[in-house]
Amino acid sequence: MPWYLYLALKQLFPSGRRLPFFTLISVAGVALGVALMLVTTSVMGGFGHQIRRMIIDTQGEIQVRGRDPLAAATAAAVEQALSSAPGVAAFSPYAQGVVMLEYRSRPAFPAVQGFDPARIRPVIPLERYLTAGSLDDLDDDSVILSSLLANSLGVSPGDKVSVYSPLMLERMKNNEVLLPREVRVAGIFQIGHQQLDSSTVLCSLRLMQDLYGLGHLVHGYNVRLKPGADEFAAAATLNTMLPPGVRALTWFEANADFQAVLSFERNMIFFLLTFIVIVAAFSITSSLLVTVVRKTREIGLLSAMGGKARDVALCFCAQGLVIGLGGTAAGLALGFALLRYRDNLVHLIASLTMGQDVFVKFYQFSQLPAHTEPRDVVTIIVFTLAAATLAGLMPAWRAAKLKPVEALRSE
Amino acid sequence: MSDLSPVLRATGLRKNYRSGDSTLEVLRGVDLAVATGESVSIRGESGSGKSTLLNLLAGLDRSEAGELIWGVEAAHQLPLGELTARRGRFLGMVFQSYYLIPEIDAAANVLMAARILGGVGAVERARAAALLRRVGLAERGHHLPAQLSGGERQRVAVARALMNRPNMILADEPTGNLDERTGDEVIQLLLEVCAEEQAALVLVTHNPAHAKKTNRQLFLKNGQLDHG
Question: How many Cβ contacts (< 8 angstroms) between chains A and B?
Fold first, then answer.
């Protein structure tokens, strides 16, 4: 082992003595930073993962869309392409739009999506999210409402609501007298996503086609892939098979703006948390600078014994690196332990503050999601080790700059 | 001076210290030659430049003028990095304040001299153990410096200075922090082990009794060595 590394280790972990306070504090500072970065990126990753699952559960991995509603011939060509495409497990047509909903003079303007009840099950597991009613109860004169929308209107399964479509308003301009479509509430669903839960109506494809005057046209297809299939590769293959004017979009591309916001939030939080490690690195620098001053005569002695200035510098850089290694290892252990017991911690905090029920009501989750990407762990390790090693640079430079004769003479 | 060839030769060494506009001439052309195995003492009043001379001889500082020859090598012409590397092999140093590394035990402090020059193996460990035995600390090798007395620490420093089988030892008031009896013991030990190892010794001291024990006594006055 080179002498500078040997001495660095001995100065951090002296023979036969307790761990120095400086080593303990420096390692703890780095460890806290690493643990926080790991926990935060994992929880953010968990939310992202949960949102991905939610989007896929409501749209499928891929959506096939046209610029305009798909004509019968185009729809047939799309279905043929989807049937022969590798990786596609199931697909189901949809049509979507916006309607006005009214119940006891209370209006709402939700998004509406029509699907084929006979084909939807293998594509979208709607039953998983139904809190009242059943998919079997859905016919061409009924709708399923999202939970917050049902709450705001005050409707329950079995109630009847009035539906006005843009087509009806268009006809009213021509002085035609049209009555709203009366439909029964067949069920209520809750996805766990604020936007979807607050203002969404599900209905049969035929009802949606009636409301929008689409005839037999559809807006697109939701596609479910076989387990393990790569959505990006499958979408790329599909795009080579689909008729002109029709495109296959992955769930990621279809929600690109939302994904960009999520990614930005995640990166910003990661960026802000890096400052904890940077502050810890500054504390290492400060402590090592004190060590250089305290050990000035020893540094002079090393030079007197033939130690090169470069090796003296490396001794202090190595101390930064070793603190970084210790802090990273301890931080990862602490971070993974916190992630392991995150739900217990969240419930403890919730019960000590607002109470668990209020917590679940406001934050809409009873379990904190977490998903750790190996890439994030590698980034944290590399960043921390680099910061800790750089922290040793200034003390190292000062130590290397000391003139041996002045160092030996110092008081 | 001994008839043997000089292991160290300094000619016309000059050293000034500048303070603002004034210049203090500390060494004004010092000439010194030390033969292999010879012991030389340098005495002088406080501030006469004894430690400055020792630092120049060790290559820890550069002189304004003059030549410094280590063996057959012109040390004053070597680049700083090379000079530092050669120093570790050519000479060992003993200081008044011992300068042991507090985090490692006595044996590791002795081995540190070898470690800096390249590495530590069985040969080096055996040499360190033998040196510690020779300075009377065979049983104290695993003790930290803080667990040793002043005299014991200086003995460890002597063993460390001899670790790399140097051609010479430069000792800068090695008994300055010790009581009289312990100081006498350390000087006696230093002279004996230097003689056994065939290492020349340059001893800077205030103590006339210690100086008398060396082969040659020199006095530094007005920036020059009085060879008597």
Answer: 77
